[in-house]
Structure to design on (137 residues):
């Protein structure tokens, strides 16, 4: 496990992995925020030199605007000193709720009794396979 950590730390030093480092710093900032603010954050990201917080509800936007200066003061603790401004917004996209698909059980109403007049041998065999499925259910 120690070797894995050393490898990851080495990789994070490369410029290609800058986004990972930035995301870790943002998460560090979110972790040091008070719980009343932390609860309202859906996610955060940096674009240019602006840190954007995507919030879960408009009430949190008021709370964040009220605490904007204290959040800015925490940027140095999270090693995000290059951020010039902080913006907050509430997304109007609703999260997709995962629908649980329930397999509907039903009684087979057919007995598989039908005349197979298909002349193409491939299609004829497919109909016979369907007949077997119906009979076995």
């Amino acid at each position: 496990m120690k070797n894995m950590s050393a490898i990851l730390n080495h990789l994070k030093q490369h410029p290609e992995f800058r986004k990972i480092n930035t995301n870790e710093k943002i998460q560090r900032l979110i972790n040091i925020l008070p719980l009343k603010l932390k609860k309202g954050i859906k996610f955060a990201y940096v674009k240019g030199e602006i840190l954007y917080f995507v919030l879960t509800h408009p009430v949190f936007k008021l709370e964040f605007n009220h605490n904007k200066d204290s959040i800015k003061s925490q940027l140095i603790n999270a090693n995000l000193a290059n951020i010039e401004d902080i913006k907050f917004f509430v997304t109007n996209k609703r999260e997709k709720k995962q629908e649980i698909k329930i397999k509907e059980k039903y009684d087979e109403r057919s007995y598989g009794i039908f005349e197979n007049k298909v002349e193409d041998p491939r299609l004829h065999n497919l109909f016979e396979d369907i007949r077997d499925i119906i009979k076995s259910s």
Remarks:
- DSSP finds six helices and three strands in the chain.
- The chain has a mean pLDDT of 81.
- The longest strand covers residues 41-47.
- The helical segments are 2-12, 18-32, 35-38, 58-66, 68-74, 121-136.
